[in-house]
Write a structure and sequence with these properties.
Order of helices and strands: HHHHH
Helix content: 40-55%
Radius of gyration: 29 Å
Largest sheet: none
């Protein structure tokens, strides 16, 4: 037997409304008609043409996919990151990324290293 939601809970306050019970008012109907009749301006007359691309930044809005994991970090290292920045997890991620880019090895070298084991 399922528990009935109490009247004070959010779920208890929700009411089911059937699509047939919703009747638009005259004001709503008139607004919808005016929206349908409205012409859409698709020209870019107001948008400036960009001719100088020197200040353009590549990948400004790129956000890499994040994956949640558990990592064990020494207490003193974690304390240092927490004291250094409010967003210490982002700082740890940045430090790992800098290490990764600095120590990047070509794929050929890694295949040779693996073959030697």
């Amino acid at each position: 037997m399922t528990k009935k939601p109490s009247a004070s809970s959010r779920q208890g306050l929700r009411r089911r409304v059937k699509s047939g019970n919703i009747m638009p008012t005259k004001k709503m109907t008139n607004e919808l008609k005016s929206i349908k009749k409205r012409a859409i301006n698709l020209t870019d007359k107001n948008a400036p043409e960009i001719t100088d691309w020197k200040k353009a930044v590549t990948g400004k809005f790129y956000r890499p996919v994040k994956k949640q994991i558990t990592v064990r970090i020494d207490a003193d290292v974690l304390a240092w990151f927490r004291l250094t920045a409010e967003k210490y997890q982002t700082l740890i991620n940045t430090a790992c990324r800098e290490y990764m880019t600095h120590h990047k090895v070509s794929r050929k070298k890694t295949k040779q290293k693996r073959a030697s084991f």
